[in-house]
Amino acid sequence: MKKRGLNxxxxxxxxxxxxxxxxxxxxxxDEYLQxxxxxxxxxxxFQDMQYRMKDSDRRLKYNQQRIMEQTDALNTLQQxxxxxxxxxSNLYKEKYWLERxxxxxxxxxxx
Length: 111
Description:
Elements: H1 11-110
């Protein structure tokens, strides 16, 4: 033991190290395994959250695209409606002027 540097002054340290290796090491190994399991569980949850986030992003982009398409369709319908309203309004104006002209012509013909 002297070859390894063991002497009466450091025997207590040696005994502490042996105790640590015999008694504490198995406890530490169990604790280490439990911590590894916890880390794995956290990594699994993280991967699941990443997947869900990617899926949510994909759905969000899809919905944004649909909103843009629906907005474009709505704008086209609004333009078509506005043009139709203007045409109908012009037809009513033309009808009014024609009826007025016919009415004036009838009045002139009676005189």
